[in-house]
Amino acid sequence: MLNIRSILFFVGTCCLFAACEDAQEQESTTYSFDMEPLTIDVTDPNSAANFSEVAVTHLDWDAVVNFDTKTIEATALWTIDNKAGSEKLILDTDDLTIKNVTLDGGEKTQFELKEEHPIYGRALEIEIFPETKQVAIEYATSPAAYAVQWLNPQQTAGKEQPFLFTQSQAILARTWLPCQDGPGVRFTYNANVQVPEGLMALMSAENPTEKSDNGAYSFKMEQPIPSYLFALSVGDLAFQKIGSNSGVYAEPSVVAAAAKEFEDLPKMIKAAEALYGPYRWGQYDIIVLPPSFPYGGMENPRLTFATPTILAGDKSLTSLVAHELAHSWSGNLVTNTNWEEFWLNEGFTVYFEQRIMEAIYGREYSEMLASLEYEGLKEEIESFRANKTLPDTRLKVELEGRDPEETFSGIPYNKGYLFLRNIEETVGREKFDAFLKEYFDAYGFKVMNTEAFIQLLNIHLIEGDETIAEQLNLNEWIFEPGLPAKHPIPTSDKFAEVEKLITDDMDYASIKETAANWSTHEWLRFVNKLPRDIGTEKMAQLDETLDLTNSTNAEIQAAWYKLAIANQYEAAYPNIEAFLVNVGRYKFLGPLYTEFAKTPGGLVQAIQIYEKARPNYHSVSSGRADKVLGLVK
Ligand SMILES: [Zn+2]
User: Fold this and answer.
1) In angstroms, what is the span from residue 596 Cα to ligand 1's centroid?
2) Spelled out in words, what is the top-level CATH class assigned to the domain 237-333?
3) Rounded mean pLDDT for each run of 10 residues along the chain, 633 residues in total
4) From the candidates 413, 439, 561, 593, which is the catalytic residue?
5) Is 324 in the active site?
6) Which residues, at least 6 apart from 92, have a Cβ–Cβ distance to it below 8 Å?
7) From 1.20.272.10, 3.40.50.10610, 1.10.10.10, 1.10.390.10, which CATH number describes the 1-46+338-491 domain?
8) CATH 1.10.3720.10, domain 499-628, yes or no
9) Cα 334 to middle of ligand 1, angstroms
10) Cα(295) to centroid of ligand 1, in Å?
């Protein structure tokens, strides 16, 4: 795309020391990446699909969702681009029953499900002709499909209707759709979905805002997406509009509170567009799911899937919304070629999220957020070191033969963020913003990998300047484990004040008085900076003063409960158990189970809780927790 812009803008300056009173003309920094188009090869160690020979381009999906059998019966009609005149179309599947396959609306064709790979499932090889345009696959999902969580009414807020949601990232789309399951392949889609009467179905597409009479819904997604953004949710849902192109879906008893919590959403969209260009997906809605959702949020296009644990009642945890919104540029628009490049999605998104938060709530606020993440990052790197998995703290990881799940951590997010912040602080914000704007423009609906990104940096920001190259230190940041010795450190004056209150001889009355004005972030800093071996006596005193065990803010609960487990502060255990059984967000579960597992007695307690909690978890969370608790290797 050719888009050379030379925008001149005029800055009215009042020169105090000179006679010049004319407006000063200044050329703003702009970039154009068109002069040197980069070739970016898409390879994917986690997919068997032959997308470089024949790629899917469009999907027509007809599906019936059956809550009784916990299955989806569907036909996936793929339109293909047979670039190499191949006689085979290879798709990824995992635990699907393939009933039959037809070509171009007629003839049945031969297909074979290849031998099962323990991580990647079974490749589906379909015989096609070089001139074949469309391939229809009739299939059914398994009740155990990893991507799909079927909730019984008890697991919802309303307690009367069942609920379903999918989570396809990273390589779980293949458990409910035979597809080319890698982020480097994009397709548009239309869907017809039949669900039980009285329920609403939503997808990562143009969505209804009201229930249909007969449970039949149609969807259209005109912008091409990769398979990991293919998403479906079904339940007793209602919609509430927030802004001109934004709104929220949730169960009827939750929707008003959710709309209130997200009322700054239109401001966030505006701030994001002012930074890096227009929002390209039309509508931006959020669906608040039941608490078993394994992530904070999932950036499914047009419809972010979110955990209810961000509904704190005071908008204090909505940086998550800024994060998912930012993915509409980084990740959904410019997409990593494969999961070894995951940091390109997440590091950029955390950076962008911070910039949105700064634009709306100010630098002190965003620095508090960044500082919390920074402390978490250092802790996480140490745990990688202790587990002898330090190579996985490189930004670009190796996933040949591995499950992308294995390397999932905060590293690509927060080390990626610091890396980009280091670039900003080296070249200056104005230059870096202009660079990023062009990056999202030039590579929108395209792929990106680390090597191409380095080339762009070299061409546009380093430009042969050795001092800049040295300060950017690209090699160490990207290809070496841990953090480079010289890195940006977020700082917050408010946090410095909080930390002063933590002494050997704490003055509980003055802590209580000061804390009355704290934001969630200051609370978190306080709890996180308490000595890890504080002891039950002081914990009890703090609890009496600040009522931390009964907090209703999920972030504060998780931080306090972790400390409680470390100190065997059993007064908090009933609440910890209730939290673990109710909430499925792994960000909270992981640290708590890990803390329990540090002692033999703690492990026994954890396993007892886990037996009750596990049925409530999505496979993403239970798969990880199984490992932490030593239940699988
Ligand atoms: Zn993200």
Assistant:
1) 27
2) alpha beta
3) 33 35 56 80 97 98 98 98 98 98 95 98 98 98 98 96 98 98 98 98 98 98 98 98 98 98 98 98 98 97 98 96 98 98 98 98 98 97 96 97 95 98 98 97 96 96 98 98 98 98 95 96 98 98 97 98 98 98 97 97 98 96 96 89
4) 413
5) yes
6) 47, 48, 49, 120, 121, 123, 124, 171, 173, 174, 178, 179, 180, 181, 182
7) 1.10.390.10
8) no
9) 13
10) 10
